[in-house]
Structures are given as structure tokens and as C-alpha cells.
Amino acid sequence: MKIYIFDIDNTIYSSKQKTILPQTTQLINQLAQQPGSILGYATGRGDAKLEVIKEIEHLFQIKIKINGALVYVNDQLIYDNPLDNEKVKKLLADAEREKLSVGLVGKTDEVVTLINQHVLDSYVSFNNHLPKVDSQYHLTNAIYQMWIYNSNEKITQAFLQKYPDFELYRWHQGGYDITSPFNSKGKAITLIKNKFKDYRLICMGDGHNDVEMIKLADIGIGVSGGNHELLKVADLIAPKVEEDKIYDFFLQNDLL
Asked: CB of 69 within 8 A of CB of 177?
């Protein structure tokens, strides 16, 4: 019996080609129908950005969203941990003074405090419609994650150094997810391992936020060209998603 957990961006979804490639679709469909297997994903995305996998999203039984802030098993919520609202308010006040836009991720939607060129640039890579602007969103909604992007990474780094109580995950140059230290893909994977103790766990990812998850897996798979630390701890290295060889890779390594 096996559990398969996949990161989304640049693992099963190609950010460059803005699509899910044929071998990935073939693999996901086979794993979803395979007796004794449980299929899951673990992503920094929330519901507002999950339309990129809308054609296959229903096939996943385990859904780890917003870097582990929300964890679902068979559509039942088993973990729910938003950010401390007072800490959110402080960061937003500081960002407003420095004229920085902050993304606010709720349980089902996402807003930004203002739209500038940096926000426009960051959304290009996610193939998304622009979010609503609502600087007061946190006053009536739980916030599970924030994000900040500036093309000058020195600006985001200098700003975020003032907030040691948050966990930071870099997603590309100048862009960071801002999360609770109690939330991570790795901590969510620990919950899953405790719930399904007799299963062999296979995890696959490419990013900074996948490192802990890959370490915890019985078989951790890194994606070629991914985060340097992740590639060092991975048991296997898969081809880049754009090569469209993921099904062949799983077959060749006896992972099915």
C-alpha cells in the first residue's frame, strides 16, 4: 500500500508551459485508480489558485493546502491553523508605510492590499486572474498565509528580517510566502504518516517548501533543476516536468 504526495508547481504543473503535460495526466489517472494507493498533493497554493489543476483535482484524496495550514483527507478538514491576527496587522501596517503590497490568503480566496507592477509581474507566473484589492480583508477573515513580491529581492529580504516569528518560503527571486512556523508541508506529512501508518510514503517536489516533506518520505523524489538543498536529500531525481517523462520515470523506478 502506498501514498503518493505531489507538489504542484513545476512538479505536476508546468509553470513555463502553463499546463499539465500528457504523461503527468496519465500517471495521476493511473495512481488514482490503482488498488491500495492513496493520491495527494501538497502545495503553497490556496483554493483561489488551484484552477491550474481543475481537471484532475477531484482525483486527490489528500489535499495539503497553503503550505500545510489546511489539510483535508477525503474532503474532511483534519488541520486548520490560521496566522495570529495581531501579527498580521503589524506586518500590514509596516508594509503600508513602506508602500509594499502584501497578498492575503484566506481559506477559499485571496486578495492583495494594493496592485502595483510587482503584483502584476508575480501573477504572470501563476496564470491567474488578478486578485481583488482589499486592505481590510484580514479584519473579517482568517489569514492562513501572506506573500510579498518585489523584483528587487533586497527590499523583500530587508523587510522580512523584521519578522522572525514567521516562517518564510522563497518561491522565486524577490517572492516569499509568509507562514506560521507551526505550518509546513512537512508537518502536514507527519499528520498523514500518523493517520496511515501501514502505508509506504512517496513524495515528489522541487521547491524550498518541499525539503522537509522529501526528508520524511520513504522515497523522496526531487525534480531536476529544483531547490539545491532538496536535491541533496532526495532519494531519486526525476526529469524536469517540461520533458514530459514522469510516467516513464515512475515505471522505470518501480514506483507504480
From this structure: no
The hierarchical CATH code for the domain 2-81+183-252 is 3.40.50.1000
Q: Residue 73 contacts by C-beta under 8 Å, 6 or more apart in sequence?
A: 61, 62, 63, 192, 195
Taking alpha carbons only, the member of 67, 106, 66, 113 closest to residue 91 is 113
H or E, element range at 202:
strand 200-205
What would the grid cell of residue 31 be? 495512481
Contact present, 169 and 177 (Cβ < 8 Å) = yes
pTM, 2 dp: 0.91
What are the structural domain ranges in the chain? Answer: 2-81+183-252, 85-179
Q: What is the pLDDT of residues 187-208, one digit of tens each?
A: 999 999 999 999 999 999 999 9
How would you classify the pairing of strands 2-6 and 102-105?
unpaired
DSSP state at residue 208: G
What is the H or E stretch that residue 24 is in?
Answer: helix 22-33
Listing DSSP states for 83-110 in one string gives PPHHHHHHHHHHHHHTT--EEEE-SS-E
CATH architecture for segment(s) 85-179: 2-Layer Sandwich (3.30)
Nearest to 22 by CA among 47, 49, 56: 56
Give the pLDDT confidence of 119-162 residue by residue, as tens digits: 887 776 665 677 899 999 999 999 999 999 888 889 999 999 99
